[in-house]
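FW: tagging you since you asked about this chain on Friday. Here's the raw sequence from the shared folder, copied in full. Didn't touch anything.
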Amino acid sequence: MLRLADVIEDVCLGNPLLQFGLQHRLLNLSQVAAYIQPLLAVKAKKEVQIQTILMALSRLQKRMKKTSVERDDFRIKHLFIQSNLITNTFAKTPAIHRAAQEVYAQIQAKNGFIAISESIGEITLITEDQYEPLMHDVIKARAKFSHSNLSSIGVTFDEKYTTIPGFIYIILQQLLLLHINVIEVTSTFTEIVLYIDEKDTKIAFEALHRLFKK
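HL: got it, structure written out here
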């Protein structure tokens, strides 16, 4: 049987906003206890008193504060923006893969922007919107998913952060708190690129710059 403390921890760590609020002591624990009481009763299969939840939350908050990764621990080297982007995702087949490489070569020859992201079953092309006709001329298949009116925010950081857990989480967390949807992500060793709706570009850039670019 799960201990109540374990159930409370699972609930809080499974909710990014609760987790952030507890880590930074932003929340009224009595209000949190009342908020999660019905869910705990279902998970624990018994009635749980508010005071019991409150005591467990207090202990969890102290432990999270000691182990949490703080944004002040990190610095960003550079931030850069690319606008007027689109994404198109296709089912990954040998033919689509060859066509994607041809699109990549043609756009590179024009000094245009293109990024390709692959998984086991899909391949996504991210390009400037001016190259959409070229892409559809080469790739004859219908895209599974498409997004337009996108921008990218690129983050360059020191390689020392690649061995420290939590850096990318901290970056994504800031956009979550601003209710900004990250549509695509690409990365290399010391860079991560976030693709978001163009309307969110200014606020996302300013937030990341303010928090990390000291």
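FW: The chain has a mean pLDDT of 88.
HL: agreed, and The radius of gyration is 22 Å.
FW: great, closing this out.
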